[in-house]
Design goal:
Elements lengths: L1 H9 L4 H15 L2 E2 L6 E2 L13 H19 L20 H18 L11 H16 L11 H25 L5 H12 L8 H4 L1 H30 L6 H20 L2 H19 L5 H23 L11 H29 L1
Antiparallel strand pairs: 1-2
Helix pairs in contact: 1-2, 1-12, 1-13, 2-12, 3-10, 3-11, 4-5, 4-6, 5-6, 10-11
């Protein structure tokens, strides 16, 4: 509930559009066979939908192919979406470092708590950090978003990195997988007879400290690899727009087809991409849809488990001090969001 409401109210400029996108994501997540009762849901009798719609298909359609349709449709109208020439250095200047430092701090502060909150990974704090920087940029005398704002990149990356690090700590110390990646690692630990948690540091200290040391080694290796190749990857923007968008569309189709070897999934990819295009066209945020798609099955399963354990008593959802705390934090987030919206509308009226 915290992830659903917080994402819908914070990400995007309209709460109504955010909730609509969330409901759409939850609706897509419910398509298929009910895992508990075995009843068909929203399949329209199509056998290919009995297993539901793949998260990979939705992700590629919404975030990649739908974005290609949107950018390609506005390439002649909006000059800001044209590819910019790549110039610069493989490192930050002192002025750029000073510009990015506050965004790094804000992104890290946003990402750290989400490392122990099961909201599906770093997607939520990443979008929240970007949305915050975009709003702060609007208050500046010379807004930079849309013309190469370094804060728009620094804050989301810092939020994602902070969430990933905290999530790994929660996995090792508490045995709590709060993202898909952490869940996969938890399964790998169990395959080797290891149970992440407080006792893991005593039972397998060599493994734990070697894993932590590998993180530092990986950061250094990635830095060495990315510094000389960053400008090379940036030169992809110099490819003519029709070839670039056509190539992206082809790879989107190849990726989905290679996953399922099904023509139906290609048609579904195109259909959902058109939905993503319509959402971008009407300024509807994409993050709530993805969050609803990722967390919808988890929320449904958790709700059913809670009701089964309480013999159908909905009071179990508010019977714990932990739930009171989470609802209180959620209420504070909503109130702050409403306060910011009221201030924004008041300033526009003035």
């Amino acid at each position: 509930m915290f992830a659903f409401v917080a994402t819908s109210s914070i990400v995007g400029d309209s709460v109504v559009k955010g909730i609509a996108a969330l409901i759409l994501g939850l609706g897509i997540a419910t398509i298929g066979i009910d895992p508990t009762t075995g009843v068909e849901r929203a399949t329209l009798g199509v056998q290919e939908l009995f297993d539901g719609i793949s998260l990979v298909t939705v992700t590629v359609a919404i975030l990649a192919l739908g974005e290609v349709f949107y950018v390609a449709s506005r390439i002649r109208r909006d000059p800001t979406v044209r590819a910019m020439k790549t110039t610069g250095r493989p490192w930050l200047s002192p002025a750029e470092f000073k510009e990015a430092a506050p965004a790094w701090a804000r992104g890290t502060a946003i990402g750290l708590p989400f490392g122990v909150i099961p909201v599906g990974g770093s997607e939520v704090p990443t979008f929240m950090a970007y949305s915050l920087e975009r709003r702060l940029d609007r208050r500046r005398k010379e807004p930079r978003f849309g013309r190469g704002a370094i804060r728009g990149l620094a804050a989301p990356e810092a939020a994602g990195n902070a969430t990933t690090g905290t999530a790994m700590g929660a996995l090792l110390a508490l045995g709590l997988p709060v993202s898909a990646t952490a869940a996969i690692m938890l399964a790998a630990f169990r395959q080797y007879g290891l149970q992440p948690g407080p006792l893991l540091f005593d039972r397998a200290p060599d493994l734990v400290w070697s894993l932590l040391a590998s993180f530092f080694v990986a950061m250094i290796v990635l830095l060495i690899i990315n510094l000389p190749f960053a400008q090379l990857w940036a030169k992809l923007l110099l490819i003519p727009a029709p070839y670039l968008y056509g190539g992206i569309a082809v790879f989107c189709g190849l990726g989905v087809y290679a996953l399922s070897n099904s023509t139906f999934d290609l048609l579904m990819l195109l259909f959902i991409a058109l939905i993503g295009f319509a959402m971008r066209r009407h300024d509807m945020p994409l993050a709530p849809l993805m969050i609803g798609m990722v967390l919808g099955p988890l929320a449904e399963t958790s709700l059913r488990d809670a009701l089964l354990s309480s013999a159908g008593d909905y009071g179990v959802l508010v019977a714990s001090p932990i739930t009171w705390l989470l609802y209180g934090v959620l209420l504070i987030v909503v109130l702050f969001t409403l306060r910011a919206r009221v201030r924004q509308r008041t300033s526009q009226d003035i």
